[in-house]
Amino acid sequence: xxxxxxxxxxxxxxxxxxxxxRTEEKEPLEKGDLTAMLIAAFLVFLPAVLLLxxxxxxxxxxxxx
Length: 65
Prior knowledge:
Elements: H1 5-23, H2 33-64
């Protein structure tokens, strides 16, 4: 049991932290938070989606030409 003591303590500590996290109050969103999250997601995902569409279009163009 001495070999696994740190692992057991780490798991018990993790369970304690998760329980504290569940019992904490969730902070409500402010007025512009949802809009800010949507804009941020748009700015993050749009370039990746456009790049993916461009690669697919380029491959189709190369094979169909």
